Structures are given as C-alpha cells and as structure tokens.
C-alpha cells in the first residue's frame, strides 16, 4: 500500500520560496502558497534566474524582461508581494559558495520559518533525470539554510538567521507531506496561466490547457491525503 502523506506544518508566520526559474512554483506549488497567504502567512519569492534561456527563438534579454513581468503577475495572484531575482545565468546555475552566499543573504533578509525549494534530487517524479538548475538550486538551498544561521559563514551577507524550522521541496519524487489546495484551485491555475508567453512557446504557439494537468496532480496527491485536492512536498528539515 502506498504510504499516506502527512499534513504540512502550519506553525510558521513567514515563508520564503527559493527556486531557479520563473514558473517553478507555479507547476503545483503556487496552490499551497495561495492557501498559506489566505491563512495570513507572509510568503516571498526569490528567483535565482530570470528564465532568459527558456524561450527558443526569443533573445535572452527580451525573454528575461517578459518572464520577470509574468512572474510578478503570477505571484500577485496567490498573494505574494515580494519577488526578487538574483540574476544567476539560466540553464547553467552552478552549485558553489557564490550561490550559497546569495541564498543565505536572502534567508537572513527575509527571516522565514519555512523555506520552500524545488526538487533537489537526481530524478523527477516521472523518473527522468532532473535538470542541473533544479538540482544545484535545491542542494545549494539546503546548505544555505545552515549557512544563514552561522555568523562566521558569509559574515558580509547580513545578520545570522537560525530560525528556519522547516525546509520543504515541491516536485520531489519522494514526497512526505501535502497541503490541501481545495480552496485555491482557481488561483493555482490562474498563477500558471499568467506565464502566457512561456506557455505559448511550450505549446508551439497555441493555447495550453493547464487546469487539466494541475487538477489531475491535485487529485492524484489526494489519493494519499484523505481524498482532498492537494499538492505534495518532501519535508527535508522539520
């Protein structure tokens, strides 16, 4: 029998989502964000890149401008007002001290109790090889959480913050917990639809149905979560 998923903790006031690209949170995780902000939680986004390499046939500088605009609109739909971009190069995000320092600085600035990232594992939930950007971003995030609490690591990056209670990864092939998104399906769908230029490129220029796959994911997760429409997370720290 497939193991049932546990309820994600809710004893936090501030959450920070740190992902590689515009749209990473929207492929499922934004539904949880909408649920959290509706419950009075403060959520911020930090994007490592502007997604400038994500649209074939569009110059990177133009893609960066459009994808930033679409990400800000998308975030606003689910109640996120703080959206920051760290300008690491899309497609070649490198794990290392520079990335850890930037993420640690963001954690120290925002002082979250919950940190959310995107799948850090070698493979996706489909069994395919995970992208280098996602792997490197996720693993650097896990290390940066510890870095942020140590005043002797990156002392130039702000006052230490050791108050992170939980670190959770969306999109993981090894989920442990879930968030009920029954009341946030429309917001989750609209937040992904806000990436209209990127979606059009994925769909060859035609319309892309995002409601069907998103609700399918929510229902599939619900089979392990009491039948509730939900999104899965791997709780790595907590």
UniProtKB/TrEMBL annotation:
Tagged with keyword Zinc: yes
Presence of the UniProt keyword Zinc in the record: yes
Coiled coil regions in record: none
Pfam families: PIG-L
Lineage top rank: taxon: Bacteria
Keywords of the record: Zinc
Recorded GO MF terms: hydrolase activity, acting on carbon-nitrogen (but not peptide) bonds, in linear amides
A single GO BP: glycoside metabolic process
Protein name stated in the entry: Diacetylchitobiose deacetylase
Gene (UniProt): sle_09320
């Amino acid at each position: 029998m497939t193991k049932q998923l546990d309820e994600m903790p809710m004893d936090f006031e501030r959450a920070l989502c740190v992902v590689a690209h515009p749209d990473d949170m929207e492929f499922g995780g934004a539904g949880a964000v909408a649920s959290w902000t509706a419950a009075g939680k403060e959520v911020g986004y930090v994007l490592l890149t502007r997604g400038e390499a994500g649209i074939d046939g569009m110059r990177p500088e133009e893609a960066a401008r459009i994808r930033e605009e679409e990400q800000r609109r998308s975030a606003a739909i689910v109640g996120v007002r703080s959206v920051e971009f760290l300008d690491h190069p899309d497609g070649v995000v490198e794990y290392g001290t520079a990335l850890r320092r930037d993420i640690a600085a963001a954690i120290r600035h925002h002082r979250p109790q919950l940190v959310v990232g995107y799948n850090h594992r070698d493979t996706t939930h489909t069994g395919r090889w995970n992208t280098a950007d996602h792997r490197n971003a996720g693993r650097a995030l896990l290390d940066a959480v510890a870095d942020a609490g140590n005043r002797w690591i990156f002392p130039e990056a702000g006052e230490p913050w050791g108050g992170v209670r939980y670190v959770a990864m969306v999109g993981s092939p090894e989920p442990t917990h879930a968030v009920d998104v029954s009341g946030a399906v429309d917001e989750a769908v609209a937040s992904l639809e806000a990436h209209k230029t990127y979606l059009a490129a994925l769909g060859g220029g035609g319309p892309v149905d995002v409601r069907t796959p998103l609700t399918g994911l929510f229902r599939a997760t619900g089979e392990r979560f009491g039948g509730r429409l939900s999104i899965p997370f791997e709780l790595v720290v907590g």
